[in-house]
Amino acid sequence: MYAQMVKSEAAQDDPEKLAAFQARIDAGEKIEPKDWMPAAYRKTLIRQIGQHAHSEIVGQLPEGNWITRAPTLERKAILLAKVQDEAGHGLYLYCAAETLGVSRDELTEMLLDGRMKYSSIFNYPTLNWSDIGAVGWLVDGAAIINQVPLQRTSFGPYSRAMIRVCKEESFHARQGFDAIRKMAEGTPEQKKMAQDSVNRLWFPALMMFGPSDKESVHSEQSMAWKIKMNTNDELRQKFVDQTVPQIEFLGLDLPDPGIKWNEERGHYDYTDPDWSEFFDVIKGNGPCNTDRLAARNKAWDDGAWVRDGLMAHAKKKAAASVAAE
Amino acid sequence: MKNEWPLWEVFIRGQHGMSHRHVGSLHAPDAEMAIKNARDVYTRRNEGLSIWVVEANHIAASSPSDKGPLYEPSESKVYRHPTFFDIPDEVGAM
Ligand SMILES: [Fe+2]
Ligand SMILES: [Fe+2]
């Protein structure tokens, strides 16, 4: 979901090596950076972990937007801590990707010039404080559903990064639920705002899991290699089943008239999001794509003198200490 | 980009008298900044009492293909485990 539509590569290695590799994965062994791995496994993972990392970083923008306007000092401190965690998540994931032989700067450049993607959800705006609650609750809620199974992914560094991330995520979802609950239980105007946030963010949240299984052609190899642990629709269903009772608890209307408990399936039925909108946002035409990329590019460009200055200082200090010896 | 900050591996001692453990890596221009960054990235929830950082290119590592020669010799030495020996119950704690 933070990695949607990751194109996987067809394996083109020596069949014997491939079979031995698959056997390791089937036996539940972790693959570590120095182990032999198919080129396609490496390439797909760089794409997926990179996209995941970029999502954590770009995901700071819609929430950072409200740090200075949080309604109380406590909410501000909480949101600040939450957004700082997301920076940490991005860093854990970049480290994991780097063990595969791509550099941090290469990854950054690929994000900045649009060669790599981040999750479509962060191309939607956060218009008001209620949206911040809804993002923590729904977006981080969806992220948790995606990330929990990834703790068992076959690539050691990715799995360890996911374990760290998951430890921190429940705080994110809970603070969001707590914030929107305050709104839902507040004045009629506040309740209306909460309802509006849920209505606007529901379908974009469903899109986080990627296209429907019917259209998602890249899954099979990734599932066999335990890069992907569940299909998009499985995870989406889990999210709907978990979230509908929470919306009801808040006393809000369901954002989709198609949501109905299906006794036979033991799941909620729901309406699929508008996939043409999804593909359009992925292509760069969402409400905030341009802003998000511009903000990341500006941060990178404006920070260049700091990166260069600190490096120059470190080199000078190192040279001086060598000279003193 | 030519001027990328070097990669540092981060080791942290948890609360309970444990040894330092590898937790991940990060980029920093020098050791001092690496420790500061490690504090922010890896100890936001009291996960550590002490931080070690070492530049990644200073770490020497065994290679996966040496697994056999390195570790197989110990497999045949079952007598290194206390359970190898039969001690009668009457002997008491040992
Ligand atoms: Fe995160
Ligand atoms: Fe989060």
From TrEMBL, chain A:
SUPFAM superfamilies: Ferritin-like. This is 1,2-phenylacetyl-CoA epoxidase subunit A. PANTHER family: 1,2-PHENYLACETYL-COA EPOXIDASE, SUBUNIT A, PHENYLACETIC ACID DEGRADATION PROTEIN PAA. InterPro entries: Aromatic_CoA_ox/epox, Ferritin-like, Ferritin-like_SF, PaaA, PaaA_PaaC. It comes from Parasedimentitalea denitrificans.
Automatic annotation (TrEMBL), chain B:
InterPro entries: PaaB, PaaB_sf. It holds the Pfam family PaaB. It comes from the Bacteria. Keywords: Oxidoreductase. Its EC number is 1.14.13.149. One of its GO terms (molecular function) is phenylacetyl-CoA 1,2-epoxidase activity. Gene3D superfamilies: Phenylacetic acid degradation B (3.10.20.520). NCBIfam families: PA_CoA_Oxy2. This is 1,2-phenylacetyl-CoA epoxidase subunit B. It comes from Parasedimentitalea maritima.
